[in-house]
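User: I'm preparing a small set of examples for a lab meeting where we compare how different chains pack in three dimensions. I only have the primary sequence for this one, and I'd like the structure in token form so I can line it up with the others. Please keep the answer compact; I'll paste it straight into my notes.
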Amino acid sequence: MNSIVYLEILSLNPKKTAEFFKSLFGWECHVPHAEHPDYISFKTGGERSMDGGIELRPSLPEEYSTLLYIGVDQIQAAFDQAVALGAKIKKPVTELGNDWGRIAIIEPPETAAIGLWSK
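Assistant: Understood. Below is the structure token output for the 119-residue chain.
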């Protein structure tokens, strides 16, 4: 696997952000779970389509406001290897629930944070 599988955009107003991307790029946007109305999923469409989500945040972090996830087969092994290679831990391996898999967020040396995702 080891490819980009998901993009998460943090927003002060997910509905407005979704409308912006929908209007500008034609992305398909929808609320995937009624219990999380402030999380909007999107598909970019086209030949190189990518799925992602727009998540509500009361403020945007200084560290990152857009996060890409790299799909991995063994998340714990990839996480442990990343830490051994010098990555800072931003979020340890965490179960998402609803059969979404597990994620972790790391900050590789000298670059922005990235997510790891395993389904």
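A couple of notes for your slides: The mean pLDDT is 87. The first strand starts at residue 4 and ends at 11.

User: Perfect, thanks.
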